[in-house]
Structure formats: structure tokens, C-alpha cells
Amino acid sequence: MAHNPDHHVTETGKDQFVFEASTKTVLMGLMGLGLVCLVLTFFFDDELHTRFWSNLLHNTVFFTGIAFLCTVILAAFISAWTGWHAVIKRIFEAYSLFLGVGLVLLGIITLGLWLNMHELYHWADPETVANDEILQGKSAFLNKTTYTLCTFLIVGAWYFFALKLRSLSLDEDVNGTADFSHHYRMRWFAAAFMPIAAFSSVIVIWLWIMSVDPHWYSTMFAWYTTASWFVSATAVTILTIIYLKSKGYLGLVTDEHLHDLGKYMFAFSIFWTYLWFSQYMLIWYSNNGEETIYFHERINNYPVLFFGNLILNFALPFLVLMRNSTKRKYGTLIFVSVLVIFGHWWDFFLMIKPGVSHTAHELGAHAAHNGELAGFYLPGLLEIGTFIGFLAGFLYFGFSRIAAAKLEPTRDPYWGESITHHV
Questions:
Q1: What pLDDT is stored for residue 365 in this prediction?
Q2: Whose CA is closest to 79, among 159, 184, 164, 176?
Q3: How many other β-carbons are positioned within 10 Å of the β-carbon of residue 165?
Q4: Phi then psi for 49, rounded to 5 degrees?
Q5: Environment class of 287 (CB within 10 Å of its CB; exposed 0-12, middle 13-18, buried 19+)
Q6: Integer Cα distance of 89 and 252 in angstroms
């Protein structure tokens, strides 16, 4: 645990990331593109604005989940006494704070729910519930009050722990002492966060995503969704590291660190596939109509989405990352990371769009059903543009947080272990 508190520069001499004006301009331009796409989606939509609201829900949940998983990864590493990640922990800390932005975006969706501005959820329509015995049985959980309270309390709690871990880490840089008191406090908060994260994430995943198909349920769905977030968070971290190194930062981050992150991306891509298969196989084998409807709808009416999901998120990452050497090559890691981020965004599209489309159809809107409209059967140009805008906003926020603190937490008790990491 020994470290040198006087070491404040990397071997390249750059320890404070400068968020350049040119980078800001590019990201702001892409954010503008996303905003334009959202506005166009709103005006060229059905009478319920189904495509607009589903795009907003889709991207909000996807990027808020990545921020949540960055917090989980950081807390897990701290709780497990992991040392190798110290040189890159500023990236996890920065992206975890996007939870605050996510909370605002989820607040917009929640407000729209109360004002009857959207029909994302079948259970939110009183007339539908009155004529549906299954929804009546689930109404104690699937209602606007539960949705609102759980969203704000749970995401608010996640944001609190993200802020706490970040503030303790930054204070350790300045006031860290030989007794490692800051790190012990971080470990306490990290350990407290882990069970809260595990149980609370299940609740909001059920509310935000699974309840767009309110007649369907799966006990594995929350694990499946979380695995998708995890792989995406790892991919974003890898791309950020490679970008920073290309700018002369993170000189002490080596191929060994990237190799470990590559192994996480490879392993959890397989884990995601294991959960995908387990969920599908158990539902297929039981042949319970209340469960099979989810897959029946997607296989028969959205086959490109359904089978493309497996190709993007299992077949290609598996084949490329199977060789040990590919986890150390920048070009390969960039390719797979970009593929994984888009692939799991595609995965969330598949989770959300068919259910929302079916709800809109049942409520009489001329929205997509069985793939009749662009933006539901497959992502259209407006969906891709919205995704790019959200991604740019996520990166802009993350880069601004990375620039707000020195990149090297040299008073971390595991600093020495991290800079000599070897696998």
C-alpha cells in the first residue's frame, strides 16, 4: 500500500486534463444534432408522440444506467480492496456523476406521465386497467405514485453515493494521511452502496423498462439489463482512456490496465449472452403464454432487431476478443468498444420499442405496430441522431468532470500497486 505522495505528474508530465475548445465545439454540435432530431421526431409523430417519448425514455435509461454501473464498478473495486484501477478511477468517478443529469431527464418523463403527455406505459391508462384483470392485480406496484417515488428516491440515493465517493477521493488528494482514513471512509460508503444498488436497481428496471410490456415478467430481466449496462460502461471507459492517452494524458496507464478492461468486456459479453439464453430457454421450455408473448412478439414482428442483437452483442465481440492479444491492441479495442456501445443501445431499443408500440396501438394511435413505422421496427435516422446527441452530452459532461480534478490520485493507498500492475 506504499505510495509516494509527492509524485504529481505522469511520465508525460500532464496530470490535469484540459477540455479543449475544439472538442467542446464538436460535442456541442453533436448535442445540437440530437436535439434537432428529438424536435423533428416530436413534430413528425403520431398523435400520442409515441416515437418522441420512447426515444427519450430509451436514451435516458441507457445512459443513466451506464452512469449507475460506473458507480457500482467503482464501489465494487473499493470494497474488494482492488488496487490496479487507481490510475483510471477518475474516469469512473466522472461518469458516475451523470446520475444527476439522468435524474433530471427521468423527472421530465415522470412529469409527462402525471400530465398524461405520453402513453409509454399501458398501466398508466385508468380505462385500460379497469378492463384488464392482470393489470388490476399489478396495480399496487404499477402506478404513477410508485413510479415517481422509486425513481426519485432510488436515483437520488445513487447520486448521493456517487457524490460521496467522488468528494472523499478528491479530498484524499489534498488531505490524505498515512493512516488512510479517507480510504477507510470510502470503503464504508462503497460497502453500504453495494446492497442498496443491487436491490434498488431491480425495482427501477422493472418500472422503467419491463413494465412497457405489463403482462410479461421475468425474474432474470434485471440481471440481463444490468449486464448490458456493465458492458457499455466498460466500453465507454476503454474509449475514454485511449482518447486521453492519444492527447498525452494517463502516461502511467499501460496495456496491462487496458488488458484487464478488455477481459471485463469480453467476460461480461459472454455473461450477457448466458443471461439472454437462460431467460429465453426457461420461458420457451415452460411455454407459459404470459411469458412467451414477449419473445413471440419480437421474433415474429421484429426479427432483424431480435437476431441482430445476438450478432452485435455476442458473436462479434466473442470472435474478436477471444484471442488474448486483441485485448491489448488499441485498434481492436476501439472497434469492439464502439460496436458494444451501439449494440447494447440496440438491445435497449429491442427491450422498449415493441412494448411501447403495442401500447400506442391498443390506445388507438397510428403508431408503429408490428413494424409499420420507422423508429420502431428498426432505428431510423432520427433515432441514430438522438443517440449521437445523448452520447455527446454524456461525454461532454464526463470530460468536464475529468477536467475538474487531477488525473492521478497519488495519495490513494494502492497507487504504487496500480502503477506497477502486471498481468
A1: 57
A2: 184
A3: 24
A4: 55, 45
A5: exposed
A6: 13
